[in-house]
């Protein structure tokens, strides 16, 4: 170690780690975990960017008195027996919203939660990544070089397994350290409400027209071109699902958009399009050409722009709804001040989208009782209502009494 990093905390050497990939080993581990004590530290590793699915390819569990267990979910299948043993215990996860869906897919569904990432945010820590929080509160350097690895790889390298084990082995100590900070700052009940809110959410997003999320699709002009883009996206998504590969690894978005803009007249023209790249761009050329033909022949042409069911961006509010613009700016400043006073990130104090919705279409009258009820309907927690409803009501009154914003002389 060089003289410049002699004071850095050092991560101790770790014993060799093995993966449990048989039902017999899994059932034995369930018994061992049941015999342990205290909360369940749990984490999951996926293969985002490599595989189509967001399934868990490794699940790690640590419990005091039991030890560390790394499970191979595809090999084991259902985790119902483990869930029966630990469902009533507190589960510790870091950024639980990222892992709950894939854990629930295999039958693991907590009823009590302590989210160390969310707790770090509520505690006002400047950095909330696991490595940063562990170093700040426990004084241990936790290497994160394998966070974006392809966890569907088999066999998994030992270095990756050690990394995965450490992710859970420190969570119980971290939970205790964070709980002390929250208790000291009077935020224990706030954290409890936030954890319960996370448990109650469904993080599976279903989009009506997912193909419109193609990067660069907004540059496509013409309903026929959009129909081709839609069919290309659908063909790629279907193939990616079949072979469980991330769609962008087959043909990137930029290639699909280029083909939709150019509308090649023949399969040969498509193959000769230099922008049409990707490892499956030529090997599956018949698939992509069929999609283009389907788009060209379709009678169902997409509209150029979706009917917006969301609010316009705040930058245009001054033109579209000046009163709402004043309400938003005044209330946002007031809420930001409260967030600073409480040492809680403003987005955790109150989701910005909720404040925008309230400012755009406030209840009438916009008194504290009506604002409280409206925010509650939107999903705000009680502690958020206590902290923000009155200041928002006051801000709306202030905005209504402020003079009109002068018109832009250039308009």
Give the gist of this structure.
This protein has 411 residues and is of the alpha/beta class. It contains 20 helices and five strands. Strand 4, helix 4 and strand 5 form a beta-alpha-beta unit.
Strand content: 5-15%
Q: What is the averaged pLDDT score?
A: 93
Tally of individual domains? 3
State the helix count.
20
Helix content class: 40-55%
CATH architecture assignment of the largest domain: 2-Layer Sandwich
Account of the protein in words:
There is one protein chain. A hairpin with a 2-residue loop joins strand 2 and strand 3 (67-71). Helix 10 runs antiparallel to helix 12, helix 16 (322-342) runs antiparallel to helix 18 and helix 19 (368-378) crosses helix 20. The chain contains 20 helices and five strands. A five-stranded mixed sheet has the order 3-2-1-4-5, sandwiched between helices. The relative contact order is 0.08. Residues 1-6 and 405-411 have low confidence and may be disordered. The longest helix has 21 residues, at 223-243. Helices cover 51% and strands 7% of the residues. The protein has three domains: 9-199, Ribonuclease H-like superfamily/Ribonuclease H (Nucleotidyltransferase, domain 5, 2-Layer Sandwich); 210-297, Orthogonal Bundle (DNA polymerase, domain 1), CATH 1.10.150.80; 314-401, Orthogonal Bundle (DNA polymerase, domain 1). The chain has 411 residues and is α/β, with parallel strands linked by helices. The protein has helices at 23-35, 73-76, 80-86, 96-105, 116-122, 130-138, 158-169, 171-184, 188-199, 223-243, 247-250, 253-262, 267-271, 285-297, 317-320, 322-342, 346-349, 352-360, 368-378, 382-401, and strands at residues 37-45, 58-64, 67-71, 90-93, 112-115.
């Amino acid at each position: 170690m060089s003289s410049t990093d002699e004071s850095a905390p050092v991560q101790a050497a770790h014993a060799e780690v093995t993966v449990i990939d048989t039902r017999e080993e899994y059932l034995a581990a369930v018994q061992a975990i049941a015999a342990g004590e205290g909360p369940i530290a749990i984490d999951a590793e996926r293969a985002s960017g490599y595989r189509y699915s967001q399934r868990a390819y490794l699940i790690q569990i640590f419990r005091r008195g039991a030890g560390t267990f790394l499970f191979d979910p595809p090999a084991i299948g259902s985790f119902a027996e483990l869930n029966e043993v630990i469902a009533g215990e507190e589960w510790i996860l870091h950024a639980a919203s990222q892992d709950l869906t894939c854990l629930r897919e295999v039958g693991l569904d907590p009823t009590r939660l302590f989210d160390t990432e969310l707790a770090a945010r509520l505690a006002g820590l400047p950095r909330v990544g696991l490595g940063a929080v562990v170093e700040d509160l426990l004084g241990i350097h936790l290497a994160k070089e394998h966070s974006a690895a392809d966890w569907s790889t088999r066999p998994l390298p030992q270095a990756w397994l050690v990394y995965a084990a450490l992710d859970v082995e420190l969570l119980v100590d971290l939970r205790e350290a964070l709980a002390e900070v929250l208790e000291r700052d009077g935020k224990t009940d706030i954290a409890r409400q936030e954890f319960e809110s996370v448990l109650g959410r469904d993080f599976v997003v279903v989009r009506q027209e997912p193909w419109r999320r193609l990067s660069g699709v907004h540059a496509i002009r013409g309903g026929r071109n959009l129909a081709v883009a839609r069919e290309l996206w659908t063909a790629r998504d279907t193939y990616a699902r079949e072979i469980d590969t991330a769609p962008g690894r087959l043909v990137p978005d930029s290639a699909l958009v280029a083909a939709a803009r150019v509308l090649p007249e023949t399969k040969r023209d498509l193959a000769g399009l230099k922008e049409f790249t990707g490892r499956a761009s030529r090997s599956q050329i018949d698939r992509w050409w069929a999609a283009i033909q389907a788009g060209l022949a379709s009678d169902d042409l997409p509209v150029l722009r979706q009917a917006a069911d969301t609010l316009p961006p705040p930058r245009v509010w001054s033109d579209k709804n000046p009163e709402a613009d004043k309400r938003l700016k005044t209330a946002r400043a007031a809420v930001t001040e409260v967030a600073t006073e409480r040492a809680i990130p403003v987005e955790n104090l109150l989701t910005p989208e909720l404040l925008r919705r309230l400012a755009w279409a406030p209840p009438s009258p916009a008194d504290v009782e009506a604002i409280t009820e409206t925010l509650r309907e939107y999903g705000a927690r009680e502690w958020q209502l206590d902290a923000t409803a009155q200041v928002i009501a006051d801000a709306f009154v202030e905005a209504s009494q402020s003079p009109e914003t002068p018109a832009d002389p250039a308009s």
